[in-house]
Amino acid sequence: MTIERLYDTDTGAGIPDALYDHVVFPDPPSDRPYVFANMVATVDGKTLLEPNRTARDLGSDTDQRLLRRLEANADGIIVGATTLRSGPLIFAPRLWRMTLTTTGDLPLNNRFFTDAPERAVVFAPLSLPTGRASRINEVAKLRFVGDTAVDLPEALRIARNEFGIQTLALEGGAKLNGSFLENDLIDEMFLTVAPKLKGSSTLPTAIDGVGLPGGEHRALTLVSIYRDGDELYLRYRAQR
Ligand SMILES: NC(=O)c1ccc[n+]([C@@H]2O[C@H](COP(=O)([O-])OP(=O)(O)OC[C@H]3O[C@@H](n4cnc5c(N)ncnc54)[C@H](OP(=O)(O)O)[C@@H]3O)[C@@H](O)[C@H]2O)c1
């Protein structure tokens, strides 16, 4: 791993190889954690090389290492149920790990749950199919928020007030990221650009979903750019 700094607004940043070892985030809003998204995409913006796979084959070992370093700066992580269904997810035991589901179709023997059941949280709407709740309750804390879909701002209030999460890593997939964007809940975006082209109009990008209405968009400020070989590590902050 040899990381090179190309641009950084933090004049006190450490040596490039220690990138993301100690990330300084602004204070969180009073009613939710500070949320940073983290994704890896090809140069043409695809976040998977094949449907229903994990994204591990997209980025380099350095990308994997930076992912872990970023997680070390958070109190908790959140992933969508499809990401959880795509393979084993392993996090440091101290991290709160949260997911959202309407179907309740979750791999309850995934290490996501079994490594730290006392820190695993599932948010579901009241419409969760009968019979799913008791099984989920055995391996996680189940919280009902919303009628037919999870009310995301309410879920984040619970994350902050009940579980004390001040900084939350949003780790995809694209649909969950879309829900966060539509609710204006993304404060920062870390994006690894993997030196690959993939094509396809069906593979996911970093953020899918219905998107922001009309010509609306969320403007971003560039915080830093680093590289390792041909791979780029971008950090952007939402303009508020
Ligand atoms: N390149 C990367 O950096 C990266 C990062 C993460 C994931 N991925 C890949 O992305 C793929 C999955 O992405 P995806 O966009 O298809 O799915 P996703 O965002 O991981 O999960 C979507 C699912 O989450 C649940 N969900 C999301 N919002 C909800 C809400 N408001 N209320 C209730 N449930 C909600 C639903 O689960 P139910 O279906 O159970 O109702 C929904 O079907 C995987 O293959 C994964 O490996 C890539």
Descriptive report:
- With 240 residues, this protein is of the alpha/beta class.
- The protein has a single domain (31-238), classed as Dihydrofolate Reductase, subunit A (3-Layer(aba) Sandwich), CATH 3.40.430.10.
- Helix content is 20%, strand content 25%.
- It has six helices and ten strands, in the order E-E-H-E-H-E-H-E-H-E-H-E-H-E-E-E.
- It has helices spanning 61-72, 81-85, 111-114, 132-139, 152-161, 174-182, and strands at residues 4-8, 34-42, 76-80, 96-100, 120-124, 141-144, 167-170, 188-194, 220-228, 231-238.
- A ten-stranded mixed β-sheet has the order 1-9-10-8-2-7-3-4-5-6.
- Strand 3, helix 2 and strand 4 form a beta-alpha-beta unit.
- The chain is globular, with a radius of gyration of 17 Å.
Bound molecules: NADP nicotinamide-adenine-dinucleotide phosphate
Summed up, the helix count is 6
Distance between the termini: 35 Å
Percent helix: 10-25%
Give the percentage of residues in beta strands.
25-35%
Order of helices and strands: EEHEHEHEHEHEHEEE
Sheet having the most strands = 10 strands, mixed
Computed structural class:
alpha/beta
CATH fold name:
Dihydrofolate Reductase, subunit A
Question: What form results from the Cα inertia axes?
Answer: globular
What is the overall pLDDT average?
A: 97
Widest sheet: strand order? 1-9-10-8-2-7-3-4-5-6
Radius of gyration: 17 Å
- Overall domain count: 1
CATH class descriptor: Alpha Beta
Number of strands: 10
CATH architectural name: 3-Layer(aba) Sandwich
Point out poorly predicted stretches: none
At the fourth level of CATH, the homologous superfamily is: Dihydrofolate Reductase, subunit A
